Amino acid sequence: MTRGFLSIVLHAHLPFVKHSECEDSLEQRWLFQAITDSYVPLLDTFERLAGDGIPFRIAVSLSPPLLEMLTDEVLRQRYKRYLENLIDLSGREKERVRGNSRLESLASMYHTRFTRIYEDFTGKYREDLVSPWSRLERSGRVELLTSAATHGYLPLLLHKEAIGVQIKAGARAFRRMFNHDPVGFWLPECAYVPEVEPYLSSEGVRYFILETHGVLYATPRPRFGFHAPVMTPHKLLAFGRDPDCSKQVWSADEGYPGDPRYREFYRDIGYELPLEYLGNALPGNTRVPVGIKYFRVTDRKTDDKDLYDPEAARRAAWEHAGNFLFWRNKEAEYWQGILGRRPIMVAPYDAELFGHWWFEGPLWLEFLLRRMASENQQVITITPSEYAEYYPVNQVSKPAVSSWGYKGYHEVWLEGSNDWIYRHLHHCQEQMIWMARKHKRATGLLKRALNQAAREILLAQSSDWPFIMKSGTVPEYARNRFITHIGRFRQLIKEVENGAVDPVFLRQLETWDSVFPDIDYAEFAGEERLPA
């Protein structure tokens, strides 16, 4: 008897990084690492499950910047060279550690892994990592969502027109890739304000995901808490995150990835072996992780790590899949009795958690879905839109302003390290809105310049830049990217105002910042009057 539903939602996103002038920039590797560690392994996992007839359902959000990078020919070719360097390095590692049987086994594991990913990317997928998701969707196993154009933090964009363009351009990019309207929308950082709703509704979106308190603090108070969606005033369904699902998988203190048997993320030969030996595996002799890691977590409180044991990690993934399923069964049984209807447990995660941050994550997910199919009848997987078909009538309520960031609101994206960006961003948005209204039917070079200005302001709006400034990982890069896009925008607007657009400069920007070929600057015109 089915007592409840589990809805796993994976959000795959990276900021748009394409340095045409630099073959192997450090930040470009964010994409290459995510493809190698997460995207290809997840695709392989879902395809094997589908091939074995496992009846799973899962939702996957693919952000527009990620889709643009996955379909960029320059980045595809660079990714192949990245893999070729890893195959070469892992092959040399097999020779370097010869005589140590455990290290030999691990080096061979990585060499086999990188070689297979290269063969899958160039052979099975033909360098196309978008179409496989479309095939999985058509098979009925995966439901695809979109997100905002450049993952802008919508509550802080100020102008409704700017919010609207982020949503419209994101939905249009999704249609270009998948040939249908997006049924679901991933709000960047799960950040909600009521102003997003009319734009989501106009794009055919039916639901979005919120942090737990975004639903719990809705008005009026939801009768079923976060175990059922609420219907918003614009007839959209808002699903709240299940905090227990999050804590068990994601918590730094309690989550599964901290188990001593799992692979240690931070011990990587890119930091430990001589630079001259690592060679082309590093970008410009800069020490970065290369993805070859020989140690396990062991104890998070010490740097003294034991060697990684893949079989022990595999057993841990099997055990943790069973543990997660045990608690979902208990949760469903309890809440069905309380609520009088089958609850939904929404489990949204960054897709990059599975494989990149948590090496065994795809294996854990595979074990979970297989065990649900073979051992369990109380909880089944479902997508948010399918749940709405089971329960088409839901309580009408206004969600609370919220995000899934630290403390649950906007603090991460608006604090001392990054608050300076907004005066520039809002001023440029006002300029873009004014220009869009002044030149409603531009053609030729003027239209191209205004479209590129729209691209630059969208790229400046990315939530990744203030997040990186706050987190302190590569803050100088984030500041430079923001300043660069604002500077390019201002130069284009200046040329438009002077009636002297430089075609060489424009073509250069169209090559460097080649997102959204179907961008429409006129959408910034929005309403005829700026909001008060």
TrEMBL record:
InterPro entries from the UniProt entry: 57_glycoside_trans_central, BE_C, Branching_enz_MT3115-like, Glyco_hydro/deAcase_b/a-brl, Glyco_hydro_38_N_sf, Glyco_hydro_57/38_cen_sf, Glyco_hydro_57_N
Record key words, sorted: Carbohydrate metabolism
Superkingdom per UniProt: Bacteria
Domain 1,4-alpha-glucan branching enzyme C-terminal: 424-523
Pfam families, A to Z: BE_C, Glyco_hydro_57
Residues at the active site: E189 (nucleophile), D350 (proton donor)
Domain Glycoside hydrolase family 57 N-terminal: 8-220
Keyword Glycoprotein: no
Molecular function as annotated in GO: 1,4-alpha-glucan branching enzyme activity
Annotated GO CC locations: extracellular region
One BP annotation, GO: alpha-glucan biosynthetic process
Family according to the record: Belongs to the glycosyl hydrolase 57 family.
Name this polypeptide is given: DUF1957 domain-containing protein
Organism expressing this protein natively: Candidatus Fermentithermobacillus carboniphilus
